[in-house]
Amino acid sequence: xxxxxxxxxxxxxxxxxxxxxxxxxxxxxxxxxxxxxxxxxxxxxxxxxxxxxxxxxxxxxxxxxxxxxxxxxxxxxxxxxxxxxxxxxxxxxxxxxxxxxxxxxxxxxxxxxxxxxxxxxxxxxxxxxxxxxxxxxxxxxxxxxxxxxxxxxxxxxxxxxxxxxxxxxxxxxxxxxxxxxxxxxxxxxxxxxxxxxxxxxxxxxxxxxxxxxxxxxxxxxxxxxxxxxxxxxxxxxxxxxxxxxxxxxxxxxxxxxxxxxxxxxxxxxxxxxxxxxxxxxxxxxxxxxxxxxxxxxxxxxxxxxxxxxxxxxxxxxxxxxxxxxxxxxxxxxxxxxxxxxxxxxxxxxxxxxxxxxxxxxxxxxxxx
Length: 368
Hints:
Low-confidence stretches: 226-243, 245-340
Number of strands: 8
Shape: elongated
Distance between the termini: 139 Å
CATH superfamily of the largest domain: Golgi alpha-mannosidase II
Mean pLDDT: 77
Radius of gyration: 47 Å
Largest sheet: 5 strands, antiparallel
Number of domains: 3
CATH architecture of the largest domain: Sandwich
Helix content: 25-40%
Strand order of the largest sheet: 1-2-3-8-5
């Protein structure tokens, strides 16, 4: 069973370490089986289910459906009944761990996804291939010393796929003198067998155990694998925000003289105090004309301006009505007093025009 587990991992590794996007059938990293069903699309969950807990891989569930498998039942029956062919939970865990290591190698090593056909043709080769190749063995070399630098930490990657049942030693003369070591994921990984793989720099020979995929890497000269400095825990002085507002940003807290009523209030009101509502609603600068009109109208009608609680309820209501709608700079006033003042001016003007016209008419009649 251990040999079968390694062959499953080796088969998946040929896809995982390829340059194109890689896909696995769901559960194959966990030795998933459909009990030899050759066409399970209509076999239901009984044969297609995946045990994600890793306790059962599905082998030996029973003879698969007759429609696609009946002609092979006589071959399948004894195999499915053989308990030695069914992996244990430990076997499933071993396979899963080995495949996770290959995924870590692929994702952490840019040379396994060069990204273009030109880069692949420039950097990728298969030494010792052809009629002289060792049966069951594939050597794959990715050379980052030619073409564009795709991985600033590595000068190259050598992968030896040994599907044979014996240890092999692959001599690649072009790699003599280069320093390859086992990939750190495998050196620290779950598979103890691959850790026996070696590389002889003097001859360029890689020695790999049976049923094993060994990934070797060569570091670039002067490559840095650790950060050059610890990140700063304190912000720089220029990054600190200002805590004090500038003088120009401070709002004015004192009302201007032009915002006070144009006439002295009468009655009990204190002459030196202006209505607080008018002062607080105006920004620094010249008060709006509508506010001045409201204050003028209030003074001509003899309305008392309240001060600190002084004045009648009617007075307070009048001032409140005048000040609660006082707009900010650029706004429009709509207070009752403002409207009264403007209307009075219009009426007086109209009366004057009528009187002048009437006088002129009377003088004409007298002359006639």
